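User: I'm writing a short report section on ligand binding and want a predicted complex to refer to. Could you take this sequence and pyridoxal-5'-phosphate and write out the structure as tokens? A short remark afterwards would be nice.
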Amino acid sequence: MLEECSRVYARIDLDAILYNLENIKKAVPEGVKVTAVIKADGYGHGAVPIAKIMEDIDYIWGYATATAEEAFELRDAGIKKPILVLGYTFPYAYSRMLDEGIRPAVFRVDMLDELCERVKKKRANGFTGKMPVHIAVDTGMSRIGVRPDDFGASFVEKAMSMDELEVEGIFTHFARADEADLTNAHEREKVFADFLERLCKESGKKIPICHCANSASIIDFGQASMDMVRAGIILYGLWPSDEVARDRVLLKPALSLHSHIVYIKDVPENTPVSYGGTFVTDRLTRIATIPVGYADGYPRSLSNKGYVLIHGAKAPILGRVCMDQFMVDITHIPEAKEGDEVTLIGRNGDEVLSMEELGDMSHRFNYELACDINKRVPRIYFNDGQRI
Ligand SMILES: *Cc1c(COP(=O)(O)O)cnc(C)c1O
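Assistant: Sure. The structure tokens for the complex follow:
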């Protein structure tokens, strides 16, 4: 391991991502395309290296990001497949999106008009193409998207009638597909499917790519696959919730988080530890200092609650997690010494500390924790067991 990564690093196992992808592919019906949701820098795992390993996989349609900037970053890195921006895109980005084949999600009339204007301007300079767009439909999130009503239908009709636009896709997003009881998701899927049928009847055309399935639906609601599924959290080997069936899609977590002990000391009974002295030793205690803190995205809410793994054993966090350091109890791990490896997320010996468990202990959410591991933490990528 590189010495400059000794303080902390996230190991990203690209083989695990490919393994998850193959199992996703097996879970969806034949012919259904997959979009890899790599927003928020690939849920903190690194969007570019992940997109790079997917460029030649034929069942991957493309990538989804949350913002235009995330899409531009992929293009700057040479990523060629289509990219869909799932959120609202502000007009300043439209020209570059048009140049680079980046599809906006559309749901406001002024977006349609503005996109048309951009295409017209380009056409004046010899451009002959159209702007591909995906229409967002709100079937239950009340977030972005037109509602599947008369206005929604007229919006779709307007978009389809514009010569400058190509309505390549239409999609919705489930609010409750990750629950054990899927009544709501089934109902919402039907609302979306009925809307699509209405559009088809009214226009005489099927929009080529209809999509609604997220990770939870890929696992538990295969009938919702339509033309394409959007795989997010499960790509990274993490679970959408603890209510989905864990035996249907086999997953391996791709990220583990590592550090090293930088200091060990023995302190007597009655010694306070960390800010506020919220923990006081009740016996002679061997304490190890770990050089990671909430400024790395390691949750402060793990104070006096979390643990790390050292020599295959759990070492509980003592006192508050500081900005850049925290302390753990290693009294019961006598072989531990300065410089030894510490696992903050992942496997160490026979013990595994998962992102889900860390989420539970810190009263956070596994998605949130992954995204929060920030740029101060170097990512080290492995493919075929080799560092790349
Ligand atoms: C984030 C997102 C996804 C992926 O969700 P997962 O639960 O991570 O699979 C899919 N669709 C939309 C619209 C999203 O915003």
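A remark for your report: The chain has two domains: 31-236, 255-387. The two ends are 12 Å apart (CA to CA).
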